[in-house]
Amino acid sequence: MELYQLRSFAAVAEHGQLTRAAERLHVSQPALSAQIKALEDELSVVLFERGAGGMTLTAAGRQLLPEAERVIAAAQALLARARAFRGEIAGRVSLGTVGDAELTRLAEVLRCSVERCPLIEIDVHHEVSGAAFEKVRDGELDAAFYYGDLVHPAVASLALRELPFCIVVPAGWSKRLANAGFEALAAEPWIMTPPISTHHLLATELFNTHGVAPVRRVEADHEAVISSLVTAELGVALIREDLATADAAKGGLAIWGNTRVTTRLQFLYRREREHDPAILATREVVRDVWMPRRSPAPNGEGIRGATGA
User: Fold this and answer.
1) How high is the pLDDT of residue 140?
2) Which of 2, 80, 123, 205 is the most buried (most CB within 10 A)?
């Protein structure tokens, strides 16, 4: 039995098909299929039911999967301990980011990482929120900032702050829409993000709460673009409250009503890599940037951790 066979078993169980699992593991489908068959032969147990809809765990597969995952985690922990003996933490981390750099404090995170762990190379990839979650889940990204409430057993998270959103309208429409109800507001053109984004999900849930749906939509995938389109009187939108407040002060748009919806900004990483020194170091940098420890108090009360969202 080889460790890579157990990783293949876990990946196919997670994705339910060979195609996605092979892409994540960077192997061909025939090679992955052969690895699963070899493991089944070694264990003398059928792990998957093969069908037109994909790969489904058998009863034996469901019982053996947690054991395989524990072995994988133990191997990761062993490797991490061995790397720690070498002193300097080195490696490469592919980091997904969402929104603007100020939202995630990205520059501060990168600067702190360089100062603490100069041998860790961080590649930054800008993503739509939902895509950031999926890419961490599937192993395409090592870690990512993300806002939303999706959960998955393969993904661990560190909560950073609450993010309130509000509705904005063009400044020139504010008087006309000041006393409008939600049904009238939904009849206006709406600027929406792609369906994979948390932003889109928040807006859709808001519509559903009021029993309406937008009649006309314009799609944009970046908050700064959405704000500029509202200012240009191309539609109404749901955007982050901090951006709405700043842009309303400039006079291009106005905040409509008192409607607020809230989600969370989080830092994500794959649970199976939680003992990887490079991931641990990056996580601690993010934690310290967002939740810095206070200096000892003059009366000797010691250090207190700042409260995080």
Assistant:
1) 87
2) 80
Residue 165 forms beta bridges with which residues? Answer: 240, 261
Check if the beta carbon of residue 84 is closer than 8 Å to that of residue 277.
yes
Q: Are 180 and 162 in contact (CB under 8 A)?
A: no
Helix (H) / strand (E) containing 158: strand 155-170
Upper half-sphere CA count for residue 186 (Cβ side, 13 Å)? 16
Rg (C-alpha) for the chain, rounded Å, is 24
Nearest-angstrom CA–CA distance, 247 and 225: 12
Residues 6+ apart with CB under 8 A from 131: 96, 196, 197
What span, in angstroms and rounded, lies between the C-alpha atoms of 53 and 48? 12
Q: For residue 294, what pLDDT is reported?
A: 54
Q: How far is CA 256 from CA 168, 204, 213, in A?
A: 5, 17, 17
Give the mean pLDDT per block of 10 residues along the chain (309 residues): 90 89 88 93 92 89 91 78 64 89 92 87 90 90 93 92 94 91 90 89 90 84 89 93 92 91 94 85 93 58 35
Rounded (10°) angle between helices 29-43 and 3-15: 110
Phi, psi of 295 (to 5 degrees): -70, 155
